[in-house]
Amino acid sequence: MAQPKILLTRIDDRFIYGQDVKLWNEAVGSNLVLIVNDEIAADSRQWAPMRVAAPDGVWTRFFSVQRTIDIIHTATPRQWILIMVASPTDALALVKGGVPITKISIGHMQAGEGKRSVTPAVAIGDADVAALRELQKLGVELEIRYLPSSDPDPIENLLT
Asked: Would you state the torsion angle of the CA atoms of residues 66, 80, 15, 28, taken in this order, to the nearest 10 degrees?
């Protein structure tokens, strides 16, 4: 069976937000944005605003982590996929479940209790750090990058 064409996986807890996904979509050339999040997949009321914000001509799907693991290998060769997840733990679950993710771009992770800010847009907790370290051990390339045109921040900021 052919591998699905996953162009990029992005951690951004806002999912489809403003111009960000449009710029990322243009940069990688995807025609399918796959939002992978258990909560959003279960609440179709949240889909409409994201579909409106998605780039024209790009399909948008909302799957749970497990559904993604179960069906990603049925993607057709003409589906060029940008995966959006909210957290490193969701990304790790996908990789451990057999989703062939080779690179993850980290864009936005909201601050909260038990998290420390490492950049103006990224705050992480212990579970995030553990998941990112494991992703690195599994050979996944990690970067912190806000927009495709911006320079990446050092990933070491997250893992110390």
From this structure: 140
Longest dimension (CA), the chain: 43
Domain range spanning residue 150?
Answer: 5-159
Q: Is the pTM of this model over 0.85?
A: yes
Give the chain's domain count: 1
Angle, vertex CA 76, rays to CA 136 and CA 74, nearest 5 = 70
Token pair for 59: 């399909």
CA angle in degrees (0–180, nearest 5) for 130-131-133: 65
Domain with residue 74: its CATH number is 3.40.35.10
Please give the pLDDT value at position 99: 97
**SS3 letters for the chain?**
CCCCEEEEEEEECCCCCCCHHHHHHHHHCCCEEEEECHHHHCCHHHHHHHHHHCCCCCEEEEECHHHHHHHHHHCCCCCEEEEEECCHHHHHHHHHCCCCCCEEEEEEECCCCCCEEEECCEEECHHHHHHHHHHHHCCCEEEECCCCCCCCECCHHHHC
Task: Decide if 28 contacts 8 (C-beta within 8 A).
Answer: yes
Summarize pLDDT for 98-138 with one digit per residue, the tens.
999 999 999 989 999 999 998 888 999 999 999 999 999 99
